[in-house]
Amino acid sequence: MAKTANVSDTLYSISQVNALTGVPKSTIRFWEKEFSDFLNPLRSEGNQRRYDRETVETIQKIDQLVNDEGYTLEGARRKLKPLATNSAVESPDGEEAKLNELADTMSDYLLQKLFERVKSEETRRTNFQIKQ
């Protein structure tokens, strides 16, 4: 069940979050489902979504990862996990966990580079067609 809003906190409606971040309201709602570990808006007594400053910053980070840096939703989730835990706790399998994290980071990096290359190729083709 969703948390209820605390009156003393500064809270924003979904329209205000849209205005602050530029992220469409429908996208914010979709991301709430896709990033449920990171986005849990508070609810007013009328069951309207209310976002605190931390949640707005998380939405901005997701927007940056997905739309600016070209991460997939899964890649953005993996990138946000270390930020949510703040620091990884060492376990007996710590070395394996570090290797898995490195593999994920490398996969994200390669996907980002591939995305940039495809975008560059599309731009080159468009410019070539315009010149003809």
Task: Give a verbal description of the structure.
The chain is flat, with a radius of gyration of 19 Å. The chain is mainly alpha-helical. It folds into 2 domains: 1-69, Multidrug-efflux Transporter Regulator, Chain: A, Domain 2; 88-132. Mean pLDDT is 82; it is low at 87-91. Strands 1-2 form a two-stranded antiparallel sheet. It has helices spanning 14-21, 25-34, 53-68, 73-85, 94-131, and strands spanning 42-43, 49-50. The protein has 5 helices and 2 strands, in the order ααββααα.
Query: Under CATH, the topology of the largest domain is which?
Result: Multidrug-efflux Transporter Regulator, Chain: A, Domain 2
Question: Structural class of the secondary elements?
Answer: mainly alpha
Order of helices and strands: HHEEHHH
Which value, in Å, is the CA radius of gyration? 19 Å
* Separate helix tally: 5
Named CATH architecture of the largest domain: Orthogonal Bundle
Spatial order of strands in the largest sheet: 1-2
CATH top level of the largest domain is Mainly Alpha
Shape: flat
Residue share in β-strands: under 5%
Tell me the helix content: 55-70%
Count of the separate structural domains? 2
Q: Would you report the number of β strands? A: 2
Taking pLDDT < 50 over at least 5 consecutive residues as the criterion, the unreliable ranges are: 87-91
Biggest sheet character: 2 strands, antiparallel
